[in-house]
Amino acid sequence: MKNLFSLEGKTAIITGGSRGLGREMALAFAEHGADIVIASRKVENCEEVASEVRALGRRALAIGYHAASWSDAQRLADTAIAEFGTIDILVNNAGMSPLYSSLVEITEDLYDKVLGVNLKGPFRLSALIGTHMCTPVSDVIRGGSIINVSSIASHRPSPNEVIYGAAKAAINNLTIGLAKTYGPHVRVNCIAPGPFLTDISKAWDMDNFKKVAKVNYSLQRGGEPHEIVGTALYLASNASSYTTGAVIDVDGGPR
After folding, report:
1. Does residue 186 have a pLDDT over 70?
2. H or E segment at 247?
3. By C-alpha distance, which of 242, 237, 245 is closest to 10?
4. Where are the domains of the chain?
5. Distance of CA 109 to CAs 8, 99, 112, 116, 197, Å?
6. For residues 217 and 128, what is the distance between their CA atoms, to the nearest angstrom?
7. Phi, then psi, of 251 in degrees rounded to 5
8. Under CATH, what is the fold of the domain 11-249?
9. CA–CA separation, 206 and 212 (whole Å)
10. Where is 89: in which H helix or E strand?
11. Contact 114, 163 (CB under 8 A)
12. Nearest Cα to Cα of residue 125 among 71, 179, 190, 64
């Protein structure tokens, strides 16, 4: 039981891994024995996290990656597999939720960008890595774990999250479809975070948020970034060996 959450001998790709929840997962996975591929738009930020991973004694690779790009997904998969030989864990964490003044003023370009980053990228990368995980090597299928990162906006979108919430609802659906497609060798699950106090929260009106949190959440506060780690480790490791197709809310509890 003491090794239930071990990731020794595993390699993980984490998109959006250069900051926020992605960085927390990257460092936690490394601390539990995994080598890490950090992928995000700005490769220099990925390199900073890669250095932190190496300081923990694990191998790390930083790759610039645009989640809405079909060809970037192929390049990321090919580069990671060439470097590490096999990928055991994929975390589709990259996402975006831009502000808009009204629904009618949302441009087609913005709409396509939100759907591209939040849905197209995870679909394409999961198809590539999921197929890799299911491909026999010397008659052995290594398998693996795919973790999608959704949002409570997929259940309860605010007026400022209509497109984002729709894309994340599709991620919940995609999780179930992928679990059926790649089972029994690959488990596919989803984390739906609530409001976490990452660097994004610096733009929030914190006084107002605290008032809202006391009314809307059972724990009456936002999540600290490290509080995503337990769920992520559970889904990445053998601790969740009989869990697939699940969407787990980590949101402080609705009230």
Report:
1. yes
2. strand 247-250
3. 237
4. 11-249
5. 42, 14, 5, 10, 29
6. 37
7. -140, 15
8. Rossmann fold (3.40.50)
9. 10
10. strand 89-92
11. yes
12. 71
- Which DSSP string corresponds to 196-234? B-SGGGGGS-HHHHHHHHHHHBTT-SPBPGGGGHHHHHH
Checking DSSP bridges between strand 89-92 and strand 11-15, what pairing results, if any?
parallel
Question: Exposed/middle/buried for 174, CB within 10 Å: 0-12, 13-18, 19+?
Answer: buried
Q: Choose among 120, 146, 121, 111: nearest CA to 131.
A: 146
Residue 239 CA, chain-centre distance (Å), reads 18
The strand pair at 144-149 and 186-193 is best described as parallel
- The model's pLDDT over 120-137, given as tens digits with 9 standing for 90+, comes to 999 999 999 999 999 998
> Which residues touch 108 (CB under 8 Å, ≥6 apart)?
none
Catalytic residues: 164
Q: What pLDDT, on a 0 to 100 scale, did the predictor assign at position 1?
A: 58
Nearest to 16 by CA among 147, 128, 109: 147
Q: Cα–Cα distances in Å, from 182 out to 24, 130, 142, 211, 214? A: 27, 7, 12, 43, 41
pTM for this model (two decimals):
0.95
